[in-house]
């Protein structure tokens, strides 16, 4: 990252014997890491400002990551804060393919500063 890390979460995939670390930063990116080697496997670009991250349960052995962005200041208002869902495929401990699957409608009145997943209700 080129700025401070603001959020961390784990991603579990059955195709890999170890969890991967997801980091979000003030630099507008999220990154996926192999903790054993310290290698960055993928960068999730294009966020507006600070990024919050949350690993989600896999579907059909495809990892899923939720990211939330704090948005951009426009006068006294914060705009363009979004939640995105990413799909992780081909992760092998050395690299991973990450694709943006969905961008959620902006229904927040302010910046997104954190994410959590409830396994009981399966809600973000």
List keywords for this structure.
single chain; 124 residues; mainly beta; four-stranded antiparallel β-sheet; 0% helix
Descriptive report:
By secondary structure, this protein is mainly beta. The chain has no helices and 10 strands. It has strands spanning 5-11, 20-25, 30-34, 39-44, 51-59, 62-69, 72-74, 77-79, 83-89, 97-103. Strands 1-2-3-4 form a 4-stranded antiparallel β-sheet, with no helix packed on it. Strands 5-6-9-10 form a 4-stranded antiparallel β-sheet, with no helix packed on it. It has a two-stranded antiparallel ribbon with strand order 7-8. A hairpin with a 4-residue loop joins strand 2 (20-25) and strand 3.
Query: Within the largest sheet, what's the order of strands?
Result: 1-2-3-4
User: Strand-residue fraction?
Assistant: over 45%
Helix content: under 10%
DSSP helical segment count: 0
Task: Sum up the overall morphology in one term.
Answer: globular
Instruction: Give the helix/strand class.
Output: mainly beta
For the record, give the distance between the C-alpha atoms at the N and C termini, rounded to a whole number: 25 Å
Estimated radius of gyration: 14 Å
Mean pLDDT: 86
Q: Kindly state the number of beta strands.
A: 10
Q: Would you identify the regions where 5 or more consecutive residues have pLDDT less than 50?
A: none
Characterize the largest beta sheet: strand count, sense, and whether it forms a barrel: 4 strands, antiparallel
How do the helices and strands follow one another from N- to C-terminus? EEEEEEEEEE
